[in-house]
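Protein modeling request. Please complete all fields; requests missing the sequence field cannot be processed.
Requester role: graduate student
Desired output: 3D structure, token encoding
Chains: 1
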Amino acid sequence: MAFETFGGSLKNFTANELGAFTVSAVIASLKKKVPINSVFFGNVLQTDNTAPYLALHVGLRAGLPIEIPALTINRLCRSGFQAPIQDGESDLV
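Delivered output (93 residues):
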């Protein structure tokens, strides 16, 4: 997991851009092609006017088709890591 200092080298990127970098890297690291069934992404502070649709914009910026469902999660604690998909329902989320 990467960490950065507040106001550091990543400060000029939006949450959408940072999320797209992450999703693109995950997809590129896959050993085999796996269907992506959904995009779930979240953050606490909305930093621009597209942030309410963060998951949608992250998926689109990462090159995923608009037909893939996207859900933005806005929670203030670790419960944001809650797994929204039951085992076996999806290949990759």
